[in-house]
């Protein structure tokens, strides 16, 4: 049985996400997104995944929200932003595509989750060595090449951003 705080913060995260989507002002939407991210990090804490909760707060609540607010200010989206509602066939096509994506995610989750099957790090071992060491063990053993590819892609993105900003400033 899960902690009651899990259900409280899961419901709160859903409510805040609905507020985020329905807000007419993009800055208020960004604030509700930050609150949703904090609720998700508390959910991770209730699931005893402290490392992932810390990464959630640092990466999403910190870095990604700074990026979102920067884009909102750069585009000058305020209360008077012209938002166009699309109607006609594109609206229905987008709804169908959204449901197709949700079905694919559900099928992928059903295929990849084998309940009751013990992995490389069963719960007893994770409690013994800790979340951070278990994640590091997987990252640097089974997922070493994807980890290195992700780091190279991030490095290339940073180099590209530096080159683009240098060309604009000159």
Give the structure's gist in a few sentences:
With 170 residues, the chain is mostly helical. It has helices at 4-22, 26-46, 50-75, 89-112, 123-129, 131-139, 144-169.
The CATH topology of the largest domain is given as Four Helix Bundle (Hemerythrin (Met), subunit A)
**Into how many domains do the coordinates divide?**
3
**What spatial form do the alpha-carbon principal axes imply?**
globular
Compute the gyration radius: what is it?
20 Å
Tally of separate helices = 7
End-to-end gap = 61 Å
Q: Low-confidence spans: pLDDT under 50, at least 5 residues? A: none
* Secondary structure category: mainly alpha
Assembly state (oligomeric):
single chain
Q: What percent of residues are in strands?
A: under 5%
Largest sheet: none
The CATH superfamily of the largest domain is identified as: NADH-ubiquinone/plastoquinone oxidoreductase chain 6, subunit NuoJ
Helical content class: over 70%
Tell me the number of strands.
0
CATH class of the largest domain: Mainly Alpha
Average residue-wise pLDDT: 80
Order of helices and strands: HHHHHHH
């Amino acid at each position: 049985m899960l902690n009651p705080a899990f259900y409280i913060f899961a419901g709160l995260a859903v409510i805040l996400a609905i507020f985020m989507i329905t807000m007419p002002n993009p800055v208020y939407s960004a604030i509700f997104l930050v609150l949703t991210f904090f609720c998700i990090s508390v959910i991770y804490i209730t699931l005893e995944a402290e490392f992932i909760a810390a990464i959630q707060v640092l990466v999403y609540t910190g870095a990604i929200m700074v990026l979102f607010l920067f884009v909102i200010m750069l585009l000058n989206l305020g209360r008077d932003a012209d938002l166009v509602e699309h109607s006609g066939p594109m609206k229905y096509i987008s709804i169908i595509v959204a449901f197709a994506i949700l079905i694919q995610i559900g099928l992928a989750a059903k295929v990849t989750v084998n309940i009751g099957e013990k992995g490389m790090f069963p719960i007893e071992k994770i409690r013994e060595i800790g979340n951070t060491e278990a994640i590091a063990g997987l990252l640097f053993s089974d997922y070493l090449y994807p980890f290195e590819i992700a780091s190279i892609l991030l490095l290339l993105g940073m180099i590209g951003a530096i080159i683009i900003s240098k060309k604009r400033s000159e």
